[in-house]
UniProtKB/TrEMBL annotation:
Binds 1 Mn(2+) ion per subunit. The keyword Magnesium does not apply. GO terms for cellular component: Golgi apparatus; membrane; vesicle. SUPFAM superfamilies: Nucleotide-diphospho-sugar transferases. Belongs to the glycosyltransferase 6 family. UDP-N-acetyl-alpha-D-galactosamine binds at residues 98, 183-185. Its main location: membrane. This is Globoside alpha-1,3-N-acetylgalactosaminyltransferase 1-like isoform X5. PANTHER family: GLOBOSIDE ALPHA-1,3-N-ACETYLGALACTOSAMINYLTRANSFERASE 1, GLYCOSYLTRANSFERASE-RELATED. It comes from Carassius auratus. It is found in: Membrane. Mn(2+) binds at residues 183, 185.
Amino acid sequence: MLNKLIFLGYTSTSVGYKDKRFCLNLTKEHQENSKLQLPQGISYKQPSVVGPDGKVIATTPWLSPIVWEGTFDPFLIDTIYKQQNITIATTVFALGKYTQFLKDFLESAEQNYFIGFRVHYYVFTDQPEQVPEVKLGEERQLTVLKVPSSNRWQEITLRRMEKLEKLIESRLVSEADYIFSLDVDTKFYGRWGSESLGRLVGVIHPGYYQTPREQFPYERRPESQAFIPHAEGDYYYGGAVIGGLVKDVHEAAKTCREQLDIDAAKSIEAAWQEESHLNKYFLYNKPSKVLSPEYLWQDFKPHTNEVKIIRFSQVIKNYAAVRPNP
């Protein structure tokens, strides 16, 4: 393997990138007030992504940006963030036959993802020997974390929050400033840079960005911890992307994992596993930045008038061929 590829057990430790870390000088009171929490049961109109005139909407009702092409200056925002000497951790899960997607994911990331920034990929896999050799740029590193196999793709999905939570606690609190957890069966087609950074970041699912919330595939059974009533909801967020400051993503992952455990104890599996729980979390803990469907498209979908550029997309695949079970 290349000298930038490191194989480690899940509980292993490694030396961080830098001796002095950049700190945000925020008081505890300011940090707490920056959270955008909503009490349950509040009634309000569903926010739109596209206006009546056909133009995209670039702000949520709680005044978080929705990032679209044309809403930011790439040079300006990169210049601001590069001064901060930040590290972006990026996790992907490649178990079983999903290792076949790693090469395209990593090679396309090296062409488009946080170019010019310090990036550390963490690849969770049950087959370390299948991790491909990919040339990494300067200040970019990859660590392989071996995890057990599973006979159910649902179980793999359900345990991602737990593994993310533990990785943050054991390593990322001292190794990274921001983190993105991304699906591996994807490919980068355009710039994904510092415009995506924020305290807590979600992405609008490309299949539901103009759908009434009553038709969102939320978990609708009240007995599940992921339950969302038909009259509630902002956007339907894709589970393929979650990001933000390490501490805020840890809180999200920990909460989702706890809710998943409560459901599991009652033999309940939410409609879309961790994605259902993530949507519940984002409904009452509003993201500070929302990524438009440019940041999560699907290769089989035709281009639309709203989406001017596709930056990151789920590739076409035969689920029966790559999943261990139906």
